[in-house]
Amino acid sequence: xxxxxxxxxxxxxxxxxxxxxxxxxxxxxxxxxxxxxxxxxxxxxxxxxxxxxxxxxxxxxxxxxxxxxxxxxxxxxxxxxxxxxxxxxxxxxxxxxxxxxxxxxxxxxxxxxxxxxxxxxxxxxxxxxxxxxxxxxxxxxxxxxxxxxxxxxxxxxxxxxxxxxxxxxxxxxxxxxxxxxxxxxxxxxxxxxxxxxxxxxxxxxxxxxxxxxxxxxxxxxxxxxxxxxxxxxxxxxxxxxxxxxxxxxxxxxxxxxxxxxxxxxxxxxxxxxxxxxxxxxxxxxxxxxxxxxxxxxxxxxxxxxxxxxxxxxxxxxxxxxxxxxxxxxxxxxxxxxxxxxxxxxxxxxxxxxxxxxxxxxxxxxxxxxxxxxxxxxxxxxxxxxxxxxxxxxxxxxxxxxxxxxxxxxxxxxxxxxxxxxxxxxxxxxxxxxxxxxxxxxxxxxxxxxxxxxxxxxxxxxxxxxxxxxxxxxxxxxxxxxxxxxxxxxxxxxxxxxxxxxxxxxxxxxxxxxxxxxxxxxxxxxxxxxxxxxxxxxxxxxxxxxxxxxxxxxxxxxxxxxxxxxxxxxxxxxxxxxxxxxxxxxxxxxxxxxxxxxxxxxxxxxxxxxxxxxxxxxxxxxxxxxxxxxxxxxxxxxxxxxxxxxxxxxxxxxxxxxxxxxxxxxxxxxxxxxxxxxxxxxxxxxxxxxxxxxxxxxxxxxxxxxxxxxxxxxxxxxxxxxxxxxxxxxxxxxxxxxxxxxxxxxxxxxxxxxxxxxxxxxxxxxxxxxxxxxxxxxxx
Length: 779
Hints:
Layout: H1 16-23, E1 29-33, H2 39-52, E2 61-65, H3 68-84, E3 95-98, H4 99-109, E4 121-122, H5 125-134, H6 136-140, H7 154-170, H8 175-179, H9 184-202, E5 205-206, H10 210-221, H11 223-232, E6 235-238, H12 246-255, E7 262-266, H13 281-289, E8 294-298, E9 300-301, H14 306-321, E10 336-337, H15 358-374, H16 394-405, H17 424-428, H18 435-445, H19 449-452, H20 464-483, H21 512-523, H22 528-540, H23 544-548, E11 555-556, E12 561-564, E13 567-571, E14 575-579, E15 588-591, H24 594-614, H25 636-649, H26 656-669, H27 674-681, H28 686-692, H29 694-713, H30 735-751, H31 757-778
Parallel strand pairs: 1-7, 1-8, 2-3, 2-6, 4-5, 6-7, 9-10
Antiparallel strand pairs: 11-12, 12-15, 13-14
Helix pairs in contact: 1-2, 2-3, 4-10, 5-7, 10-11, 10-12, 15-16, 22-24, 22-26, 26-27, 27-28, 29-30
């Protein structure tokens, strides 16, 4: 590590108040950080200050954030700052993450001291509700349950109970506490909660809310573990403190109880999560709970223009003028703008008032837009953005339709779509590309390489398709940025950078022995869902998304055919989406073996019975494969099913796509025309099949060559074999050998271009005739 005494700490662009907050490391501290005031910057600098200036080891620091995204951003910025300063420490030893993830880490490291056993199950929100639903009859036996869940279906009742249980857990209320209450409904709730806790123990499960309670009890009840954690974690920093709840506060206080070096950061004006049990009283009362608490006010806004900041201050003040007194509900603060307005003389914040009549409101907005354009305040309509709490609001949708009706096109941006040039680095995050390509791109954009990319040498190179996909994403980002005049050109286009050529395609398919073993194993498998899915993959060669997208209307039981007309994929932030199949040729109808049709019938009957058992919990639809609640099954679930079956069958690992490759390879080996194989596979062109499965075609080529050789070397014209009598066996040699020979002949026939066996026989007769004439001439 660099000699800390010989270097002066780099505070960067920190203002005076930020510097004070960064340097205050001993004792409790409260940082009130208004919107856009550099809260994350201050936290990052504070961590680096502890490590660089004070020699604190990363394992002695705990940083809790409210979201995984915020935790990742902190890790990235801390890492980059340490790299810039040439400080070599193991950043992975930091306790950093959401409060839940830190609690999980504590539980995992000390699980033997909790009620949990190894291999415990962590339930998400749905799992929790479903567990209650599965046991709803047990809850129904509780006397007077209708006092807390009256006239509700089993599923709605499960949702209501889960809500109660989470609230109880987050406030650290025990069954005993509830039983002390004289209210009859609370008494019933106590019994229900007692049943729920017993079920958690029986199923070795933990819900999202109880994670924190288990971690807290672990530290509270076990002196050795508590002392170890308190001794190790010397500095505690909590982000978004205004969004913490009671159990989180108690846990944080317990961890920081020994050293008292606790720093909480937040803004009482931005409390968002009351519906999750969060309370701003935690941040408002923090100074009263810690003696000699230092307080820092970050009030200089670096994010927004002057008018936006002034609007914020005026609005907060207007509530007092209207009669409401903030008093103890918030800290007094006035945010100061650091930026000027982008266009002086033009208001940044405008309210287009309205009559509630949508048409008048729309006319006012259009009139305002036209005035902006006529006055040259804007040069393009894409310089205007409408911000709403939700774009799903009926009034918002109506406005969008009204604008479009009057010739004003718009782009609806959802989630975190951001096309500013300064966010290119975020758009590139996690995308693996070659160093030469990325260096060239950074140079052309005019941005330092290390601001856009992190250099990482991997032992296992990424697949060509993965890298190519990432390059397409980057190219699309820059294309959109260019369209919106944020960059001058798309420097990731082929005009500037050449993409490498595609390497030879490598495929993996099952060996003949594994394919036969797995097929037999599938037929005997007890779970009809697994059996049906794997038979579909192996006997049709369908892609994963195609199987996930199948509906019962796509199955023609009479004709033994299946039609592919949609595909399902999973997109981050959006979840499952239904889309068109991969190519136009992927929309296809396949004849399938009878064994698959019979299995589908059996599975259909099972699904009908299962739906009857679950009642209104399982929604009605036509999906072939569903979750327990009736929603479409995630495509990735099939991968888990395959892995489980391969392990049980003691067969080496294969991917789902390997089953597709196996299916197509077996078709080619059986001498099925390449045109037919390609059509069944859903390839856009026959050449695609030929390119990918060239190895299989080469093997049939050798068979054809050997067969042709034997034909030309034969000295006698083959005589027609006598037809077998009823007593004679059809095959006087090994049946499998004869079938193999027949397949080789079919393969040879197709390679030579003959459509029918009759044409092929005529060709053979012609060869024999030529041989006979040649022999007569020589004599």
